[in-house]
Write a structure and sequence with these properties.
The protein has 122 residues and is mainly β. The chain has no helices and 11 strands. The strands form 2 sheets. Strands 2, 4, 5, 6, 9, 10 and 11 form a 7-stranded mixed beta sheet that branches. It has a 4-stranded antiparallel beta sheet with strand order 1-3-8-7, with no helix packed on it. The model has no long low-confidence stretch (mean pLDDT 96).
């Protein structure tokens, strides 16, 4: 069982920064940030595995950084150079690895936080 609680969302102007946090308990070897804008599908933003290997969707590369604390009890998403198109509800997600591999797709993640809203104004 994994429990997740996001925080850190808010409203910023274009070009600004925000840092999201996700307090986590349980198996946190595979974690991810997803986001969902109104009327759009939920998309994977960034992932991190037990070896701290990270991956990002192309639209946030160079602007967002996913990380965990050393105890792996908190997941972070540092978001810089924010754009209006980054406006969405942001969710953290977790799922134990299967045969040593972290999940790649949304439907593979069973554990979700309640979400935190990020709004970027132009």
């Amino acid at each position: 069982q994994v429990q997740l609680q996001e925080s850190g969302g808010g409203s910023v102007q274009s070009g600004g920064s925000l840092k999201l946090s996700c307090a986590a308990s349980g198996d946190t070897r595979c974690m991810a940030w997803f986001r969902q804008a109104p009327g759009k599908r939920r998309e994977r933003v960034a992932t991190i595995d037990a070896d701290s290997f990270t991956s990002y969707v192309d639209s946030v590369k160079g602007r967002f950084t996913i990380s965990q604390d050393n105890a792996k009890t908190t997941l972070y998403l540092q978001m810089n150079s924010l754009k209006p198109e980054d406006t969405a509800m942001y969710y953290c997600a977790a799922e134990p690895p299967l045969q040593g591999l972290c999940p790649e797709y949304l439907y593979e993640y069973r554990y979700w936080g309640q979400g935190t809203q990020v709004t970027v104004s132009s």
